[in-house]
Amino acid sequence: MIPGFRDRKRFSDLSEREILALAISSEEEDGRIYATYAERLRPDYPQSAAMLDGMAAEEDTHRRRLIDTYRQRFGETITPIKREHVSGFYQRRPYWLVANLGVARVREEVALMEEEARSFYVKAAQRTQDAATRKLLGDLAMAEAGHVATAERLEHEHLGKDARADEDAVAHRQFVLTYVQPGLAGLMDGSVSTLAPVFAAAFATHDPWQTFLVGLAASIGAGISMGFTEALSDDGALTGRGSPVLRGVACGLMTTVGGLGHTLPYLIPEFWSATALAILVVIFELLAIAWIRWRYMETQFWRASFQIVLGGALVFAAGILIGSA
Fold this sequence. Notes:
Blueprint lengths: L8 E2 L5 H26 L4 H29 L11 E2 L7 H5 L3 H25 L3 H28 L2 H33 L1 H11 L2 H26 L10 H18 L9 H26 L4 H24 L1
Parallel strand pairs: 1-2
Helix pairs in contact: 1-2, 1-4, 1-5, 2-5, 4-5, 6-8, 6-9, 6-10, 6-11, 7-8, 7-11, 8-9, 10-11
């Protein structure tokens, strides 16, 4: 028996009273989630927050209707049952894992939440033989389908083209500040700064394995250093650059990736084959950096290419000269 599952009830074993109580608790939780999303988004995305406020109000309306039905059928005491008490019932992702990913991800999560609930009730109704239970599940499925339509209506009311474009622009700026800028800085550092030690080791030893070890150490060390530097340099409270942890992770990972790109070819045992492949990887890395600067930093591509290729060539030449000395 898997720990934590033996005390869960199967949906097929629930009574109509328990199903209705489960629907009530689910509506309550979804309403709180929408209200939390609205609170988190309100400072930067007021129109999306207004849409979510409307969704929370809709959930509360359905909750009260379900409670009225429960009272009529089963009395005043609502059975204490939640999603986690039922095996196979859909679960909600923790709000902090979604809210931190931006307004677009929250919109997707809201649509997914309603679709998951609707789909679950439809499938459950199809598997149920008891007529009364089947009718109850069908009614709940229709209610969830109504939630989906309500979400679309509220989005059109509160998120016109202009408002959505404004919020998307803010979300894009936040994405650039939190992920692109730190990641680009890390990729540039990893791709360029590790050229000298890698190619110095390569031409000094002509030993691919030793070169690989030097590159691996340089890449991981640079990634750890850049990640901590980015995370500790700014908490994001005044600059609006977002979570220092996310920025540090983005910067550290991309620094390591940048260094490993031209390090991995030295797993090839033949020196000149490995070096030729590593040089091709370096060219690709530098062009990728130039493209990212053009795509997200509004830098002309030819200018970005010239700057990054010039810097990379100087470091590359320094590594070869030192290794050949």
